[in-house]
What we know:
By secondary structure, the chain is of the alpha+beta class. It has helices at residues 12-34, 62-66, 128-137; strands at 36-49, 54-61, 73-76, 79-81, 84-94, 97-106, 115-127.
Amino acid sequence: MDNRFSLKKINPQIKFLSFLSFGFLLFLLCFFSKFSFKSGLTYEGVYSCGKKECTITSYFLVSDILKMNDTQKFFLNKQEQDFKVSKIYDAEIINNVAFQKVVFIIPKQDFYENQTVSFFIQKDEKNIWQILWENLKGGDALS
């Protein structure tokens, strides 16, 4: 007897799919909290090579230089290089923004003299939840 007040059984395929989707969601939560991504900024500088050493000269914001430390990693051509700062010049104000000229010492590379190259300075590693939270906050939190 089929009346409208009787309970119907749930299809076993729906149980399996809901269990599978819950397991996949749990896997994603664990995966994104466990693994971290590199965060940092890409800069450009001028490569020059002398008799003794090769350097990259670039301009940084003063706030970036104040946050700079020895634990950061320096990547050039997707290869990690030693993080050696040769000289930091005095601040210059360009269009009401304070910049400082920084010279990095690097090993000899296959670049032309006075070629503009880009390099990446990794500040720290963040998981996806930290990146998402900072982007949702927006504004000054990204700097």
